[in-house]
User: Fold this.
Amino acid sequence: MKHPDEFGLAGGFKDAPLAQEISDNSRRMSTVRNTVLPRPTQTRVITVSNQKGGVGKTTTAVNLAVALAEKGMEVLVVDLDPQGNASTALGIEHRIGVKSIYEVMTQNIPLAEVVQVSPESPRLRCAPATILLADAELELVSLLAREHRLKNALAAYISTVSIKPDYIFIDCPPSLGLLTVNAFTAATEVLIPIQCEYYALEGLSQLKRSIDMIRGALNPTLALSTILLTMYDSRTKLNQAVVEDVRTHFPTQTLNTLIPRQIGVAEAPSYGQTVITYDRSSNGAISYMEAAIEIANKGVVNG
Ligand SMILES: Nc1ncnc2c1ncn2[C@@H]1O[C@H](COP(=O)(O)OP(=O)(O)OP(=O)(O)O)[C@@H](O)[C@H]1O
Ligand SMILES: [Mg+2]
Assistant:
């Protein structure tokens, strides 16, 4: 066996950044493993929304869902984005012809008929989105109770299925159209992922206004419960400044956990996986587990 000095690392192998990270990660993993989560008394319906594209909505929805399922929770993911990225990441079939959330929203098909179990976890289910959902924004306009269709579908699902979900995550498209309005109306909470970049807070006041509007007109108890900072790179000063800025504006909602920018997080969906099953000892996977634990322990904070 090599002596640490033979690796040519100042201070010896154990002090090298990589060795430090490995030891930190194994300590964090053991904390995650030993944590027991409280089960919510009622289903928490969490809408993951931000009208900005590519900020980590889908990645956050699917990874938190798997994390909570791994900790013993029953979880349902509703893919409400015609891109179908959440379905892909959870290994759920969503080609045209597969019964999907589109039929639930526009044709009153029971949600239970379209839900599939994800290969990621036996406790994780997903209502897939097919590309047909792109037509729903227009079709919904002329339908009765057009803002309440998802809420009604979820209520019927929860009251009829034998295994009631503890958590439902709704993955929204990057827009504030009728699909997102349905998600806000159906939800008990909103989770906003924010990418740690220069324009991070831009558009957030518009999103807050939309949430306030929904609260006034359609869903009085809707809470902006959680903000999660994503794609964080500790080496850039700008990222650190964004974190401080967001924490100043949203002190109670912002999670302590930061999701690092990491290649495995982006690679996992092409294997029909989340980073939690793709590379469970990675920083990204552990961070999503830690974020899920924070959310479970925090309950709802009104904002
Ligand atoms: N922590 C991360 N590290 C590296 N890449 C990431 C991370 N989080 C997300 N990504 C990648 O960034 C891109 C955008 O992420 P994602 O699809 O989750 O965003 P989104 O907000 O759902 O996008 P859209 O608005 O199109 O729905 C994806 O390619 C994803 O794999
Ligand atoms: Mg998405």
In short: The CA atoms of residues 154 and 206 lie 27 Å apart. The longest helix spans residues 17-34. The mean pLDDT is 92.
